Every structure is written in structure tokens, then in C-alpha cells.
Amino acid sequence: MKALLLVDLQNDFLPGGALAVPGGDEVVPVANLLQLHFDRVIATQDWHPADHGSFASNYVGRQPGELVELAGQPQILWPAHCVQGTPGAELAPGLERPKIEKVFFKGVDPQVDSYSAFFDNAAQRSTGLAEYLRVTRINEVYIMGLATDYCVKFSALDAAQLGLRTTIIEDGCRGVELADGDSERAFEAMQQAGVDVVSSSEILAGSNLFPTAEGIPVSL
Ligand code: VGL
Ligand code: ZN
Questions:
Q1: What tens digit of pLDDT does each residue of 82-130 get?
Q2: pTM for this one?
């Protein structure tokens, strides 16, 4: 069975948010349209405690973009973002919710970051997503969201590693691009790992759904 996995479509990753991903808002309509095409939809939320070790503000004299070590792992420092219970951590206001059957939360341990929707960066803690997919008999995942070069990439690599048929929806993703070309390299790394890369129109082709000029899907 197939599922659509919506990665971190949260306010802090949209323009104006604490860790704004350029064009991040543009993928919300893509998510809404694709949701009509999938029977199963699952989402993730980056969900950090305020004292999270990935926040530059939790160190003296450190700036976002600098590298530190966190629990033995190299860690990029970010602006404080997606703090549990704050508006920045909420799902994008324009995102349709009724079909989202379950949300998995990640990055909850202050001492370990978690880019992947499946496992934290130290490959210690599972979010529960892998077990959930197994017991609910999903063996094929279509992934989109934010950000291409971090959470989308590591989620897709873990999905492929777990043996799931994994497809990434290119126009449903946007990257942070700390370095120019990071998103491009992320797509290459995913493809190298056996992940298929498609556009949302390829998925929707043959379905009776298409976007109108207003972005509101019409079903024939
Ligand atoms: C993300 C950086 C830090 C992401 C989350 O969702 O891609 N990136 N936390
Ligand atoms: Zn984060």
C-alpha cells in the first residue's frame, strides 16, 4: 500500500518563519492537491524543546551556520525553530488536515537532532514511523516537504534503507541552500540510493484531478 509523507510543513520553515526556506509556502498547494490522490497521508513535525542543542542561541558566542559537536555528532547550528507548542511549530495554516491520519514528531531530544522522519541523527531513537508503516502495511512512500537538503533527504534515504519503495516529489520540496546547489546534490544523493524522483504532475496524470488557475483542484 502507498502513502504520502508530508515532511515538516510548518510555519517556521515558511517565508517569515524562524528558519525560512525560500519558496517553502509554494509547496503547500502541491501537498493539498496530492492529498486528494492518496488514500493514506502521514505528516511529520519538527518538535524541539526550547533548550535544543541545535539552536545557536543555546550556546555562548555561536551563530547559526556554525558547526559544533552534539552527542558525538557534527551538528550545524540553526536559529531557534519549531519549539514545541509555539506558533512556529504549527503546521502551515493553508495545509489541508482531514486526510492526515497521523503525525510523527521529531527532534524532541535536546541532545540529538533528527533530520529524518524515521530515526534521529545518532540513529538511536525511532519516531515510530517505521513501525507504523510496517503494521499498517505501507511498503511504498511518496515524500515531499521541507527542507530538500535536510529533513526530506534524510527521510528518503532512511525510507530506501528500510526497504520501502521510495519516491520523492521534486516540485513538492524546497531547500535551505546553505550552500548553493545543496538541493541539487540532495536529489542526486537520493537517486543514488535508489529513490525515484518525479513531479506531482506525473503522479496526477491519469487521475481526474488538476489544479485550476486559482490553485483549487477540480475533480471531474
Ligand atoms: C530541518 C534544519 C533543522 C528540516 C529541521 O526540516 O529540514 N532543517 N531542523
Ligand atoms: Zn530542527
A1: 999 999 999 999 999 999 999 999 999 999 999 999 999 988 889 999 9
A2: 0.94
Residue found under cell 485550476: 212
Distance 54 CA to ligand 1 centre (A): 10
Cα(47) to centroid(ligand 2), Å? 7
Q: Whose CA is nearest to atom 6 of ligand 1?
A: 151
For residue 203, give its domain range: 2-49+79-209
Report the chain's terminal Cα–Cα distance, integer Å: 25
Q: What is the CATH number of the domain that holds 200?
A: 3.40.50.850
Count of the separate structural domains present in the chain: 1
Helices and strands: H and E segment counts in the chain? 5, 10
Residue 36 in this model has a pLDDT that exceeds 60:
yes
161: part of which helix (H) or strand (E)? Answer: helix 153-161
Q: Could you tell me if residue 37 is inside a domain?
A: yes
Catalytic member of 82, 120, 149, 151: 151
Residue 140, strand partner residues:
2, 165
Ligand 1 atom closest to the Cα of residue 8 is 6
Specify whether 99 is catalytic: no
- The reply to whether 16 falls in a domain is yes
Tell me, using a 6 A CB cutoff, whether residue 151 lines ligand 1.
Answer: yes
| In-domain check, residue 216 | no
